[in-house]
From TrEMBL:
Residues 9-246 form the ABC transporter domain. It comes from the Bacteria. One of its GO terms (molecular function) is ATP binding. Transmembrane segments: none annotated. It comes from Streptomyces salinarius. This is ABC transporter ATP-binding protein. SUPFAM superfamilies: P-loop containing nucleoside triphosphate hydrolases (SSF52540). The keyword Ribonucleoprotein does not apply. SMART domains: AAA. Keywords: ATP-binding, Nucleotide-binding, Transport.
Length: 248
């Protein structure tokens, strides 16, 4: 794969092993991928295939055991924790599979947190707008325990959007949503790419959700196992069935 400055994120021969010796788990094994600027990529694959590990390595949240990750032209290998934190804050948004909201803060305070952490005073209108975009304008003062799972997931998305990141990584952002709310979230991600040229990388198990992307990358046992351009729910489902069919 040729690297280019048009890539928002580039991984070259990235491996991530957990543990050592016989018990070591190769969560990612020699993965090379590029996510071009202004594109929407879906990542699919069986449970345990390395999707969350891929996102966390690509976002600079986890360090690969070997290989190189470049975000917005900056090589992450060898960056100090401090530089890495700054880069994440300035360029990357991340929606965790397990939301990771702070329980003592309201929805609005959770959404404002990334701006506060970077020393910016969040304009109330901006927080309100982010909550409105995810359909939660009327839940600003609720704490996570007072919100449903799907509402917490949308607060996590609003929190990732508030800094207008160059790249948004979203780990199953529609996993806890009903189909209508899920469609609204997908339309929001699509608009980020089409209207403002942001880059989105989303993990999903849902072929319909993945069909909103420009490309689907499939992972199996920590390896890239093919990809599909301009996917449809049908071509995705067929590819998934092929992956799950044991080979003789
Ligand atoms: N902290 C860890 N320590 C040891 N092994 C881990 C750790 N995190 C993940 N793994 C292992 O790495 C592999 C990939 O995990 P990962 O979370 O990336 O999978 P996934 O594709 O996101 O799965 P799911 O669809 O269930 O979320 C799994 O076998 C998992 O058990
Ligand atoms: Mg996962």
């Amino acid at each position: 794969m040729n690297g280019s400055d048009d890539d928002a994120v580039r991984l070259r021969s990235v491996s991530r092993r957990y543990g050592a010796g016989d018990g070591a788990v190769p969560a990612l094994d020699d993965v090379s991928l590029a996510f071009p600027r202004g594109t929407f990529t879906a990542v699919m694959g069986p449970s345990g295939s390395g999707k969350s590990t891929l996102l966390q390595c690509a976002a600079g949240l986890d360090r690969p055991t070997s290989g190189s990750v470049v975000v917005g032209g900056t090589e992450l290998t060898g960056l100090s924790e401090r530089r890495l934190t700054l880069l994440r804050r300035e360029r990357v948004g991340f929606v965790f599979q397990a939301f990771n909201l702070l329980p003592s803060l309201t929805a609005a305070q959770n959404v404002a947190l990334p701006l506060r952490l970077s020393g910016r005073r969040p304009a109330r209108g901006r927080v309100r707008e982010a909550l409105r975009q995810v359909g939660l304008a009327d839940r600003a003062r609720h704490r996570p325990t007072e919100l449903s799972g799907g509402q917490q997931q949308r607060v996590a998305l609003a929190r990732a959007l508030i800094t207008r990141p160059e790249v948004l990584f979203a780990d199953e952002p529609t996993g806890a949503l009903d189909s209508r709310t899920g469609r609204e979230v997908l339309a929001l991600l699509r608009d980020m790419v089409d209207d403002t040229g942001q880059t989105v990388v989303m993990v999903t198990h849902d072929p319909v959700a993945a069909s909103c992307a420009d490309r689907v990358v499939f992972l199996v046992d920590g390896h890239v196992h093919g990809d599909l351009a301009t996917p449809t729910a049908t071509t995705i489902a067929t590819h998934l069935t092929d992956l799950e069919t044991p080979r003789p």
